[in-house]
From TrEMBL:
GO cellular component terms listed in the entry, alphabetical order: cytoplasm
GO function term, MF aspect, one: 5'-3' RNA exonuclease activity
Organism of derivation: Halanaerobacter jeridensis
Protein name: Ribonuclease J
Alphabetized SUPFAM superfamilies for the sequence: Metallo-hydrolase/oxidoreductase
Source taxon at top rank: Bacteria
Gene Ontology BP terms: rRNA processing
Pfam families in UniProt: Lactamase_B (PF00753), RMMBL (PF07521), RNase_J_b_CASP (PF22505), RNase_J_C (PF17770)
Amino acid sequence: MSFNNEIDSVSILPLGGIGEIGKNMMVIEIDDEILIIDAGIKFPTDELYGVDYVIPDISYLLKNRDRIQGIALTHGHMDHIGALPYVLKKLGDVPIYGTKLTLGLLRGKLEEHNLLSDTYLRHVYPGHSVEIGSFDVEFIRVNHSLSDTCALAVHTPSGPIVYASDFKFDQTPVDGQMADIHRLAELGDEGVLALFSDSTNAEHEGFTRSEKEVGETIEKAFKDAEQKIIVASFASNFHRIQQVIDAAMQFNRKIALSGRSMLNNVDIAKDLGYLDIPEGILIDTNDVDKYPSDKVVLLTTGSQGEPMAALTRIARGDHYHISVGDGDTVLVSATAIPGNAKAVGHTINQLFERGADVIYEAITGVHVSGHASQEELKLMLNLTRPQYFFPVHGEYRHLHLHAKLAQEVGVPQENTFIPDLGDKVHLSKDRAYIEDSVRAGRILVDGLGVGDVGNVVLRDRRLLSENGILMVVVTIDNDGNILAGPDIITRGFVYVRESGDLINDATQKAEEALRECEEQGITEWSTLKSNIRDALDDYIYHRTKRNPMILPIIMEV
């Protein structure tokens, strides 16, 4: 099945991954059919107080759910699959296509949400194509920090669209699986309509170093280490994990795994054949103390300084099994995701303070990126020779630098696009233009709540975090007469025991405001609250130069 050859145009609609690193989601429309590529999360920045994840706004997809033919996945990182549990709850059982490891990691996420149903998970081998509705989608192997990553070629009547969101060209991959440069070149010969390409490392000159180089650093660290070794890494970087396992075997050390995602992902990768773990090398964290310290490796989460992750707790000294001290070696084998640098730096400082020898990216080769640098980005452009170019997967500075690289290798400036989220770009062999825009943006996930945290809630959380809260509690009767109070309770504003005069004066101000209302016969709760708030706002700021949230609470008996 395929589209009518008379159809000569296609629409592209980014719902995530443009101007940001995370929540990747791209929509391709031909005729009356929709194909979705990826559905990822973004981790919250500091101003999103208390938010767990950010996911794409799928309002447009909900209005057009009958047109959706399926979801094709490039790979199993959370910024590409993490939103699927939330998306599927809204869209229903949409068929999902991906490689074996991608679907294996996705299964774990769907199980957590009680959504797992193998009826809509469709396995595709790298190098093969699949029909998704009338879309012919080809999965092309590329290198990345996660096995089984693919670029996608969506074949349209106007030519193939190549979507290479996360990739690099590693000439010595750990698993021996080379990127399919030959197929990318063939598509270029056929005439690529549009290329969507990873912009994460558009600022970095040259080529991204091979993952095998990290193995050499790991091996040297193991050789030099005299006591316990702790390695913190992304739980999905199985090439890195395999190299740690190999080094542990070489130097006769046992490995203990710590962190829920590390335990879960290693189990998945081992079951699917993506990790070779010799029998007897793994031990439980409870048994670490039963072995000499120079015979143990702890492989853990926490490379991003997450407050409750294993490495962070070890650095604080409150891990229930593992401690770190003089002579221990810690490898932080990851780079800080934007927004996490401060937390990572704090964790490293604490580890040094406890006497550990810390090896981290800024001073060694203990980490390499999974994303292409400038020369590889140029290579992708020269292989595919697209008519139109869309830099994706990057903040705006990355996208604009990548656009300049495309122009350097011959893509006309007028054929390079950086659309905003929600812009629907119409593509044909003759021209490309933004057709219209749809609702797009971010939905905030906080606990079990999806989309119920908005700007007002975030503003209140910011105020609470900066200045605390002052609550005024008063009890009145049906006629508005004060029966009890006002009583003032504060949290995060001042230390009450040392601020008795301030609290007493504030209580008097609130009481005066209530007496004025009582004398004027005002019993409307909203007016009472407003008067209390107005009376205290100026007074509190004049006395403290702070603006706590003032929350009047009125009870009627």
